[in-house]
Amino acid sequence: MPRGNSLRPGPSVRLGTCQAAISSSAPRHETAKKSMLMWHPCPDTGRLKNGQILRIDDLASTRWIKFQALQYKDPRGRVRSWDMVSRNGYLPPGPQVEADAVTIFPRLWREGEPAQTILVKQFRPPLGTATIEVPAGLIDEGETAEAAALRELQEETGYRVGTVASVSQPLALSPGLTNESTRLVVVDVDLDDPGNQDPQQKLDDEEDIEVEIVPLSGLLTRLREYQSDGYVVYDGLWCLAMGMTLGERGSPQG
């Protein structure tokens, strides 16, 4: 390899128990501008999966949730305590459990138009303000994630005809606080389908949801506009928009 193209080793960055070296092929005066992080993947020993829940005690309970004290053994074998919140009816993860909920990412298509998605606005009492989210809801007993996603999409947005494109494995929502899990379901919605011409929501009495149709292109910019208007954006939606923007042009401002 010609000398001018060789990588010069730079300072190392400690990442947990692994190390990454910052190197650059640029002249010294451009190193700061053109430096890159050379990743050295950590071998997965599985050590962190050795933690174990020893007992869970209910401290208080309401119709929907429980406040619990948890005793566990950490990956180093030390017995520790943790406080957590769980949904009533929660079961430990396993093949018999879909997840607590579904989070739905709708992809809306119409002939000759750019792809769009559905966002929902609603007041969230714990925050004391309105949020911008994607459609979501709890999985009913005996219901699959696919069926729950199509049902919730119709109830919250009114779109009756959709095709499930993919379903994720159970995902953590706020793992430092709760064991609640969700599955991300991507649903394709054909706006030219006759069943989607006059969408009518089917909300429960306690629900008050407004629907927003927005282009996928420029989603992060649109979310910033919602923030400027006083809305709190769901973190999963922000991560999605940030990832899309990173893929398109490189390095957005957060």
TrEMBL record:
Superkingdom in the source lineage: Eukaryota
InterPro entries according to UniProt: Nudix_hydrolase, NUDIX_hydrolase-like_dom_sf, NUDIX_hydrolase_CS, NUDIX_hydrolase_dom
Entry-linked CDD domains: NUDIX_ADPRase_Nudt5
GO terms for biological process, alphabetical: nucleoside phosphate metabolic process; ribose phosphate metabolic process
Classification via Pfam families: NUDIX
GO MF annotation terms: ADP-ribose diphosphatase activity
Domain Nudix hydrolase: 95-241
Keyword vocabulary terms for this entry: Hydrolase
PROSITE patterns reported for this sequence: NUDIX, NUDIX_BOX
PANTHER family: ADP-SUGAR PYROPHOSPHATASE (PTHR11839:SF1), UDP/ADP-SUGAR PYROPHOSPHATASE (PTHR11839)
Family: Belongs to the Nudix hydrolase family.
Name listed for the protein in its UniProt record: Nudix hydrolase domain-containing protein
